[in-house]
């Protein structure tokens, strides 16, 4: 392939197709925005840091981890995009990494391995999240927080309790990133009904583990061929078990790191657009909510300059979805309570 042709292809791929052609605005008129990734040297953190470096809404990119971050930062810093990159390593540099952050993304923690549930990660990742959120409350209390560290059903309540103790809690600025469930639901739905995946929208509500993940395929757009009850059940099950599918396919050598990094970048981009005043930014996320009797719940959320502008309702549900909603509540409540108890121990 001639060099000029390769250059043209690469240019097109990075300018028009990045993040499935999600619209970006020129960086020339955008405000300064600092994004910090906590856990930036890990399996999710590295590709997520790369994707955030490609986002023109980011002016400063801080990469933090307990080890190896200077190398990751040096590597990514050579990419010719807007943001200035700095790497930070160890407890003594955590404060500097966080200071002045507008958005903090947290993929820190250990990944799932074959046979592990997200709850198996709790004892390790819960402590990591609690420590990081204590630092966030001190150094960037007004930042928007994007929680990726699993189990999200518990780590978001942990973060909320830490921030409450510090007197910095803002329910509008704490998000559990459930975007990967939406990404999977869109992909699986598009493949089944034979529509362009780039045009698909599927709300996913509930939580971010197993049966707490409830894709609302009855509300999916565009409508393709009618799905049978068996097909909807199978699509729902595959969406719920998507993480396990990847863990098993990697045969002990990792979890869903690349797709999670993509999903994390999509949601962070939405938060940045909201902060910048772009109208009608709606994504599903796990937030403090009153649309059910559970204190935290994932649903469509309208994003804006203050974080959450509006938590949107569930819409009309089928009998299958109503049953799924009832089935998930007990497990989700247990995970929420577990996080709250851990934070207050």
UniProtKB/TrEMBL annotation:
It is an enzyme of class 1 (oxidoreductase). This is Malate dehydrogenase. InterPro entries: L-lactate/malate_DH (IPR001557), Lactate/malate_DH_C (IPR022383), Lactate/malate_DH_N (IPR001236), Lactate_DH/Glyco_Ohase_4_C (IPR015955), Malate_DH_AS (IPR001252), Malate_DH_type1 (IPR010097), NAD(P)-bd_dom_sf (IPR036291). SUPFAM superfamilies: LDH C-terminal domain-like, NAD(P)-binding Rossmann-fold domains. Residues 34-176 form the Lactate/malate dehydrogenase N-terminal domain. Residues 178-342 form the Lactate/malate dehydrogenase C-terminal domain. Belongs to the LDH/MDH superfamily. MDH type 1 family. GO terms for biological process: malate metabolic process; tricarboxylic acid cycle. Its EC number is 1.1.1.37. CDD domains: MDH_glyoxysomal_mitochondrial. Keywords: NAD, Oxidoreductase, Tricarboxylic acid cycle. The keyword Ligase does not apply. PANTHER family: MALATE AND LACTATE DEHYDROGENASE (PTHR11540), MALATE DEHYDROGENASE (PTHR11540:SF47). One of its GO terms (molecular function) is L-malate dehydrogenase (NAD+) activity. Homodimer. NAD(+) binds at residues 39-45, 65, 125, 148-150, 260. Pfam families: Ldh_1_C, Ldh_1_N. The active site is at 208 (proton acceptor). Substrate binds at residues 112, 118, 150, 184. Signal peptide: none annotated. It comes from the Eukaryota. One of its GO terms (cellular component) is mitochondrion. It catalyses: (S)-malate + NAD(+) = oxaloacetate + NADH + H(+).
């Amino acid at each position: 392939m001639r060099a000029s042709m390769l250059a043209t292809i690469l240019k097109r791929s990075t300018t028009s197709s990045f993040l499935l052609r999600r619209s970006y605005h020129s960086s020339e008129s955008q405000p300064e925005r600092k994004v910090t990734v906590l856990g930036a040297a890990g399996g999710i953190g590295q590709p997520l840091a790369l994707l955030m470096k490609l986002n023109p809404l980011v002016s400063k990119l801080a990469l933090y981890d307990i080890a190896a971050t200077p190398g990751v930062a040096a590597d990514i810093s050579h990419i010719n995009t807007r943001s200035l990159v700095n790497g930070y390593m160890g407890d003594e540099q955590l404060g500097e990494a966080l200071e002045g952050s507008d958005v903090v993304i947290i993929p820190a923690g250990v990944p799932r391995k074959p046979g592990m549930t997200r709850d198996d990660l709790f004892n390790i990742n819960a402590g990591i999240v609690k420590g990081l959120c204590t630092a966030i409350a001190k150094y960037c209390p007004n930042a928007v927080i994007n929680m990726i560290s699993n189990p999200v059903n518990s780590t978001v309540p942990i973060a909320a309790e830490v921030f409450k103790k510090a007197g910095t809690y803002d329910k509008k600025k704490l998000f559990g990133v459930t975007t990967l469930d939406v990404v999977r639901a869109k992909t699986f739905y598009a493949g089944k009904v034979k529509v362009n995946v780039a045009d698909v929208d599927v709300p996913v509500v509930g939580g971010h583990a197993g049966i707490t993940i409830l894709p609302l395929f009855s509300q999916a757009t565009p409508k393709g061929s009618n799905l049978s009850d068996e097909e909807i059940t199978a699509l729902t099950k595959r969406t719920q078990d998507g993480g396990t599918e990847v863990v098993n396919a990697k045969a002990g050598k990792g979890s869903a790191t690349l797709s999670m990094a993509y999903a994390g970048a999509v949601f962070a981009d939405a938060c940045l657009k909201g902060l910048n005043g772009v109208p009608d930014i709606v994504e599903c996320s796990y937030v403090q909510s009153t649309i059910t009797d559970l204190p935290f719940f994932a649903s469509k959320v309208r994003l804006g300059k203050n974080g959450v502008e509006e938590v949107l309702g569930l819409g009309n549900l089928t009998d299958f979805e109503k049953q799924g909603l009832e089935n998930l509540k007990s497990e989700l409540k247990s995970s929420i309570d577990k996080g709250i108890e851990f934070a207050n121990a």
